[in-house]
Amino acid sequence: MKNQIPKSSSIGKNVIIEEGVRIGENVKIGDNTVVLKHTHVGDHVTIGCNCVLGIKPGGNKRMRNIQEKNESLIIQDYATIGNLVTIYSSTEIGKHVFIADHASIRENVQIEEGTVVGRGSIIELNTKIGKRCTIQTLAYITGDTVIEDDVFIGPCVSMSNDKYMGAKEYELKGPIIKEGAKIGNNATLLPGVMIGEKGIVGAGSVVTKDVRNNEVVVGVSAKKLQK
Amino acid sequence: MKNQIPKSSSIGKNVIIEEGVRIGENVKIGDNTVVLKHTHVGDHVTIGCNCVLGIKPGGNKRMRNIQEKNESLIIQDYATIGNLVTIYSSTEIGKHVFIADHASIRENVQIEEGTVVGRGSIIELNTKIGKRCTIQTLAYITGDTVIEDDVFIGPCVSMSNDKYMGAKEYELKGPIIKEGAKIGNNATLLPGVMIGEKGIVGAGSVVTKDVRNNEVVVGVSAKKLQK
Amino acid sequence: MKNQIPKSSSIGKNVIIEEGVRIGENVKIGDNTVVLKHTHVGDHVTIGCNCVLGIKPGGNKRMRNIQEKNESLIIQDYATIGNLVTIYSSTEIGKHVFIADHASIRENVQIEEGTVVGRGSIIELNTKIGKRCTIQTLAYITGDTVIEDDVFIGPCVSMSNDKYMGAKEYELKGPIIKEGAKIGNNATLLPGVMIGEKGIVGAGSVVTKDVRNNEVVVGVSAKKLQK
């Protein structure tokens, strides 16, 4: 497969590049990384060691079956992927995005320009994340979530998308987090809550209902902060 | 070692299979995976890339020394193991179990038929998990825990098994979670608490005492929900 | 590079050892591990499979630029590193330290003799951890944190170091956790809080202000426990 790789790009030892992969100019791929079928890697992309990129969704008979929109994982120019990262197919990683070590990103996810995804963070399927967001370490972004531009998600934030915890038929809904909102570390967001523009959720809070634009909420369950 | 592998099974590149490993029919193993001594892989099992399977317990002089019951890791038929997963020896993964990427499962663990273990979840030693459970993403199942059938553990749930946090001699006790119980995302369970059959713990709650059958508890510390 | 490795040490398959690496006597390195430039591995060190050690810091243009003090990762004698672990350069892992699987440790970190770092735990940059500490599974130690000797950090504990969540210029301050303090599982610590000597934080608590020596605090936000 070496013939697909431009001379300006450097590929580590024991790297596996499957068929249909495209590698741009000035790309660096670390040792032992696996790049699966039909992954497109843009120019000036850096990828660490021991990653697995372009994974096809699997599951057992109790898990929902996802129709993929697109077979390729697309990594845009100047993106950086750390070490021991997994990313699925049908996902797009925008320009200048930074994905830290041990992160995992599922299928049908879109992450826009300049966003940072922290170490050990997990982003589930069917999720859209805007520009210049910061998703900190070990944050959990559930499936079917919408995060607009310039959002800050603190470390260890937890979200869920299934109100009945598997007990009933229910259309899964993740949180909707509007432009410029900030979620403090280890906060808990319930399914489908909306956090308004520039809304702030205090560290360790449990958000059970919508937060208005510019509102600051804290506590369990989270209430408007009295000044 | 290639002579141990049936023709119906496909083994990726740079895979390491140590001595005494048994590989069943129609098995797929992804690239760069390491299968350590005495691991038994059943028929129709799928294993991802960059996993380490069959790890022997280690430790330093401050950690407890575990006597292993059985030297083998046993992976039953039709199980699916994701990418970058670690599983220890003396553990049994049941039929049709699904273990997602980045999960880690310690020694002396038993996981029964059809259970799903989420992405980045960690299951500590001496733990038993029943049939058709859902353990969601980044959940932490502490050591010495019992989870019965059809239990739902939400994302980022945290448990502990040491009441004195290392300060005194104490027999470690994890939670006991009875049939059909549901634990909301980012809930905290204290050592040895029992969650009764079909009991429900709200998201972000801190459970400090037992929950009765069919009871719904919420808050810090969690109390019976007033309707 | 095999000439740099003493005969008493054993190196697994597909291991990559870059230039300037020093390997001591009686070292074991598991399969598929990558040891990057200028890493120093002491005597009697055990390292698992699929690790990446000695990583140089990266980032995108929105992330802070760290000046490294020292180019080497130093792993002292008798340390044990699990599987799928990442450790950065300019960090020092002390004697008899145990780092469990899937853990990640950033640059400019010092971990002293006999400390245990749990499975999936993440330790951010510029952090100092004393002797004989226990950092349990999936705990998150933010950047610029000080942890003294004999501290216990429960599983899933979360910390943060940025009071304004990226909104203002601010000198980042992690928690300061004094000798013998204990933090319960899934507790949340805010930026710069000090936990006094032998202070105890209950499981699931949110600590918003300093805790005195020997004080026990619980709740959201955490208050002194009334006996």
TrEMBL record, chains A, B, C:
It comes from the Bacteria. Coiled coil: none annotated. CDD domains: LbH_WxcM_N_like. It holds the Pfam family GMPPB_C. Gene3D superfamilies: Hexapeptide repeat proteins. Residues 72-161 form the Mannose-1-phosphate guanyltransferase C-terminal domain. InterPro entries: GMPPB_C, Hexapep, Trans_hexapeptide_repeat, Trimer_LpxA-like_sf. This is Acetyltransferase-like isoleucine patch superfamily enzyme.
